[in-house]
Each structure stands twice: as C-alpha cells, then as structure tokens.
Amino acid sequence: MSFLNRVLRARALSSTETLLFVSRPFSSSSCVNSGTDLQLGASFPTKPPSSLTKISKDRNVQWVFLGCPGVGKGTYASRLSNMLGVPHIATGDLVRDELASSGPLASQLAEIVNHGKLVSDEIIINLLSKRLEAGEAKGESGFILDGFPRTIRQAEILEGVTDIDLVVNLKLQEEALVAKCLGRRICSECGGNYNVACIDIKGENGSPRMYMAPLLPPAHCESKLITRPDDTEEVVKERLRIYNEMTRPVEEFYRSRGKLLEFNLPGGIPESWPKLLQALNLEDHDDKQSAAA
Ligand code: ADP
Fold this sequence. Notes:
With 293 residues, this protein is α/β, with parallel strands linked by helices. 41% of the residues lie in helices and 14% in strands. The chain has helices at 3-13, 28-31, 50-53, 73-84, 91-100, 106-113, 121-137, 152-161, 174-183, 233-255, 269-279, and strands at residues 38-41, 62-66, 88-90, 143-146, 166-171, 184-187, 193-195, 199-201, 210-212, 225-226, 260-264.
C-alpha cells in the first residue's frame, strides 16, 4: 500500500483523531496566483500563467475537477485522463459500483445517494483508498479526481497526504445544469454516457447565448438506455443545494491556495473542449487525438 493510501486510510478511519492541519508553505510555483480568482472560458479567454498548469516531468499530474452536478466533470476529466495517461477516478462511480455490488453498504448508500445527500467522509475515503490501492497494484500513478474532495474535511485530508497540482472548477448556469441532469442517459450494456437534452439559453445582460446540442446514442444503445435514480428534478435540486452548502467552500479552499482554475463552459463539447485545452496550456499536446477514445 502506498504512503498516500496508508495515510489517507489512517486519517479517515481514526475516530479519535482531531484533524489539525498546519498550513504548509507552498512552493514558489504554487504561490504565484495565491488569492487570485483565475476566471477563464468564453467570457474570460485569457491564459493562466503556465506555472499553474505546468506538467512536471518527475511525476504524473494530480488534478481535481470541481463543479456542480451535471456540469460535465466526468466528460472532461475522462478525456483529459485519456490524453495524459492518468486514471480518472470519479467517487460517484465508486459509489455506484458499490451500490451495484449489493455488498453490505449498498442499502445504506442507496438511501443517501437517491435523496441527493453526501455519503460520509469515512465511507468515501475508504472507497477511494481501495480504488487507489487497486490502481497502484496495476502500476498506475497520478490521477484526475472527479467528485472528490466535496467537503472541507475531505480537502484537508487530501492536503495532508499529497500535493494537488491544479483544481479545475467547471461552471455552467443553473438552468443548463438541471436540464443536463434530466437529459442524461446511460447505456446499461456498454456504459456509454449520452444526453437527450437540447439546451438553448438566450443570452442576457451581455452574456452570450448558450447552446448545447444533444449527445444522442448510437442505434444499438437506444433500447438499453437508463436514467440515474438521482437524476430526477427534485433530487437534482437537492444535490445543487448540497453542493452550494458543502462543496462551494472547497472552491475557496483551493482559491486561497492559488490552485483554482475557473472555467466557464462556453457550450457543448465541440466549443468547450478546445477552449479547455487552451486554458490548460495543452493545445499542443501530442496525445490530443486520443482524448475522446
Ligand atoms: P454529481 O453528478 O452530483 O456530481 P456524482 O456522480 O459525483 O454526482 O456522485 C453521486 C453521489 O455519490 C453524490 O450525490 C453523493 O451521494 C455520492 N458522492 C460522490 N462523491 C462523494 C464525495 N466526495 N463525498 C460524499 N459523497 C459523494
């Protein structure tokens, strides 16, 4: 078991531990943007300083994706993980795998997840730890975390065990988020992710029109589509409320450390992907083509 994993587990499981984290000095590279709010995307097309997105030659990237339910964290994190050759670890997927396994935790988790609540930090860290351990056994290193950390305590635990290089905060207006969650469909056979929603929001007060074409399944998946049980309007609204209450402060946690890259999605994948690569200083990356694989 790696050092990261051992400590992650110990921190999560020790019930008596008081979580005291002494703030550590940051390296000169991570200090550059300290306290600044890097606004990127369609409305702020400036590039971030390359120090923030610089990829080290010594180890694989350790990135985090933040963003409200439905924003597209999974889509973009997965594309980047293919491109950069690091695992995409989505804690929501780990929870859904546990639910599907009908193990001892399944009924307890279903009750929480299907009501849009957060699973306890202990359970999530336990699932994440197991995933990291399995990956390590296969020789994985680096990661793109999606859906973790989601509470300040999770962020503190993560900070206590490793240095995150960059946190990408994806943003979309709430109207689009709800429509995207309600339109989400998954192929029960191949696991492919699709979206039947056609989003077209008029621009107001100088903001541009937001158009997102549906992402329709191929004919062989059409009859096998399922909807996530937590993608109902009521539960999506609850997930958004919980995001604002529990996860929004995590944005500030990383913003104050100069690690947060804000990215306003300008539209669907065709418009957003090239702009995201640009924002990450990856537009010239050799493996750009492999990303959507
Ligand atoms: P979303 O689309 O809301 O971002 P995810 O697929 O990331 O959803 O997660 C689905 C559910 O799994 C969450 O609503 C929550 O119940 C649980 N979950 C996932 N990650 C975490 C986490 N880091 N902490 C607590 N609960 C989590």
